[in-house]
Amino acid sequence: MLYPISTMSRTVSDLNGIWKFMVDQEVTPIDPGQPLPSDDVMAVPASFNDQTADAKIRSHTGYFWYQRRFAVADVLKDQRLVLRFGSATHEAWVYLNGQEVGHHKGGFTPFEIEISDDLVDEDNLLTVKLSNILDYSTIPVGNYSESQDESGHLTRKVDENFDFFNYAGLNRPIKLYSTPKAYIEDIVVAPAVDLDQQRADVHLTVKNGGEVFDEVNVTILDQAGNPVATGSGLDEHLILNNVHLWQPLKAYLYTAKVTGMIAGKVVDVYEEPFGVRTVQVTNGKFLINGRPFYFKGFGKHEDTYVNGKGLNEAYNVLDLNLMKKMGANSFRTSHYPYSDEMIRLCDREGIVVIEETPAVGLMVSFTFDNSEISKPGYQDDTWKDLNTAAAHRQAIHEIMDRDKNHACIVMWSIANEAANYSKGAHEYFEPLFKLARQLDPQKRPLTYIDLVWSNPQSDKSSDLLDVICLNRYYGWYLDTGDLEVSERKTRDELKAWQAKYPDKPIMYTEYGADTIPGLHSAYDEPWSEEFQEDYYRMNSKVFDEIPNFVGEQLWNFADFQTKYGIQRVQGNKKGVFTRSREPKSVVRYLSKRWNSIPNFDYKKS
Ligand code: BDP
């Protein structure tokens, strides 16, 4: 799916701004063709939850409505007009002038609706019904229940099976864009690079939608806008000599300019930026452009004050600047694909990204008693009770469709902390890995992220992974405060993984300790700033001893909002920055360490 841009043949209008808003009490039916019976408003893009001063609206679970009016300029009336939702969390029904024109489920990927035939001349009424319900058939996974009071009023509840606030609404931009009736529907860019010859064979596939072009021309422009290769046809191989590689923190972006022609006239033009780089996993190393790369960075969230999970581009820019200043080079889009805008920004800034599907919470019998788990044949209820496979497949299709061309994405994470230790995991994951491998035109490595109970003995499906990615909390959730025991356990486990898979690289995708900024302790107590630093120092020491250990992405970049819980103080406090991005003292230690670790060739052996 192409990102909406304006070119000489295309326009983009922004439908962001203030929309009418209403929570649905499910008492009287709502007519989507009429003005919503409500005086509430919400800003778009943003989650609705933290824009209200009403606690009931903030925690509303079920259905809610957004509405606005728009007009389309006469000059566009003969064009193909498409409504594009950057996301609608988690399920949306879209009505134009009272008619349902589209439906989409899955709160973290875009969808489009062609509306050319549904518009009226002057004043169009766009109404969107949304749901923030999550259950055992959705990703993320929610524990869903309903109850009724004496008057018959229905209350819906989602107990999140994951550790972030269930922010919902029109979280990402809503755009109306135009194309001609013969249009470029999609472009796939798959560069094959000969690193020795500094040469790339760029395989470009163009999909023509609507009326048929009789000619398609492709030009590759370098970063200064000069043409460096040209060709014609829907399936082309273009050669780049003296290729400029896209490198971590030294991005170089080419542009594929595609022109569709009919009878010698230019009809549609689209420009797709892309980087040229290689990614490969071999001999326990993660190679980018043929050299062993070391990941330094974070697990993150899309989470800011007021906007919730809504797009906040200023925070995106600030976050990447803070990362670069710390010597970091990468992050994981935990626990869902981030906005198009963030991924495009990472392409441009040279930030390396592991992109994750929204498959979080695929574990319905979590327990801190793991005595049974390592026994062969252990089975809990997860793979019997969950019904997420269809949503999971759809999410893989959608992230590949949206993000296949991005150089910044070097690996896909198929899930975060699923019950991989439980019988049935392999049967569940094998087809999903197969699907992802088939769909990715750049054949990036695949992984999932392992919970502590998924160890070298218990993990039922780690053979599917190209890279072993571990979330570990020795010293925090386990052996709290005891960094000596934790150091031993960290070392023992990493060595065991390395012994089991000598050819697979291993990295940490989470490790961290909740820390209250300004809390100090002469005894390095948990929650203090001193403990957070000691905790990271201990982990760093062990990481440096393990040859196949290729990266450290800590948890979390910044404090973030979660559901209520006795372990959460207005959210999760494992950030090394506060939610407003002030550094905790550990940032000084991490900056020193990361600025002294090169992006490449860190592990000599
Ligand atoms: C991990 C989860 C992450 C949590 C983190 C924590 O992957 O979403 O926020 O633990 O507890 O299990 O801080």
TrEMBL record:
The keyword Hydrolase applies. Pfam families: Glyco_hydro_2, Glyco_hydro_2_C, Glyco_hydro_2_N. Residues 182-277 form the Glycoside hydrolase family 2 immunoglobulin-like beta-sandwich domain. SUPFAM superfamilies: (Trans)glycosidases (SSF51445), beta-Galactosidase/glucuronidase domain (SSF49303), Galactose-binding domain-like (SSF49785). This is Beta-glucuronidase. Belongs to the glycosyl hydrolase 2 family. Signal peptide: none annotated. Keywords: Glycosidase, Hydrolase. Residues 14-180 form the Glycosyl hydrolases family 2 sugar binding domain. It comes from the Bacteria. InterPro entries: Beta-gal/glucu_dom_sf (IPR036156), Galactose-bd-like_sf (IPR008979), GH (IPR017853), Glyco_hydro_2 (IPR006101), Glyco_hydro_2_AS (IPR023232), Glyco_hydro_2_cat (IPR006103), Glyco_hydro_2_CS (IPR023230), Glyco_hydro_2_N (IPR006104). Residues 279-597 form the Glycoside hydrolase family 2 catalytic domain. Its EC number is 3.2.1.31. The keyword Hydrolase applies.
